[in-house]
Amino acid sequence: MDNAAYAVLTRQSGLLAELRAVANNIANADTGGFRAEGVIFSEYVAALGGDAPSLSMAAARVRETSFTPGALARTGGTLDMAITGEGFFLVATPEGERLTRAGSFVQNANGDVVNAEGHALLDAGGAPVFVPPGAARIGIAPDGTISADGVPIGQVGLYIPSDPTAMTRQSGVLFVPGSDLLPAEAATVSQGFLEESNVDAISQITRLIAVQRAYELGQGLLDREDARIRNVIQTLSR
């Protein structure tokens, strides 16, 4: 295989990674709190040695997450919460504490506030948020203070990582902090609302078509290069 084929193959690999990312974005266009993801392409230059020129190839090894806020949708749910500004909810999972913008929570039988997967929502002190099961009226103030029947009982924790670039996606709407957590002092909470996905479905579908066409063009070049090499081998073997 010659250098041109190597260069095209690395580009094809990157395009395939972007196809997966875009398809995942489209699949999660209606997932509350989901953050769109993309792929960053860069140039990888390999030295061939001797007097031969270097080989330039495409590398797509970095995934980029868009943290543009999604629209807020009114649900009226008592424990539905949406964050305005920079900040995340913190939940306890079996793998450790994780950040999320998905604010759909419910109260379990013990009174703990949990998400759909049963992960406990943590308060400003890092402890599970607890609401008395018998409370008739639950209120959540913009600063996250929770009150039961008019009596303050705790405060929802809103956090930001000290190094946002160290944060990585675990799966779905969960993120590994990757660094120390700080209070998100400028963020506010809206009770009875949920933040929607920030995926722009139309632009993602347009991108999907563009990437598919680029991949098909690359595949066509590889097929022609393969045919050329076969013809050369057949000619020389006669």
Question: Overview of this structure, please?
Answer:
The protein is α+β, with helices and mostly antiparallel strands. It has two domains: 3-67 and 199-236, no CATH class; 72-195, no CATH class. The protein has two helices and 18 strands. It has helices spanning 3-27, 201-236; strands at residues 37-46, 55-65, 72-74, 81-84, 88-93, 96-100, 106-107, 113-114, 120-121, 138-140, 145-148, 151-155, 158-161, 168-171, 174-176, 181-183, 188-191, 193-195. Strands 5, 6, 9, 13 and 16 form a five-stranded antiparallel β-sheet that branches. A three-stranded antiparallel β-sheet has the order 10-11-12, with no helix packed on it. A two-stranded antiparallel sheet has the order 1-2. Helix 1 packs antiparallel against helix 2 (201-236). The chain is elongated, with a radius of gyration of 25 Å.
Write the layout of secondary structure elements.
Elements: H1 3-27, E1 37-46, E2 55-65, E3 72-74, E4 81-84, E5 88-93, E6 96-100, E7 106-107, E8 113-114, E9 120-121, E10 138-140, E11 145-148, E12 151-155, E13 158-161, E14 168-171, E15 174-176, E16 181-183, E17 188-191, E18 193-195, H2 201-236
Antiparallel strand pairs: 1-2, 3-18, 4-17, 5-6, 5-9, 5-13, 7-8, 10-11, 11-12, 13-16, 14-15
Helix pairs in contact: 1-2
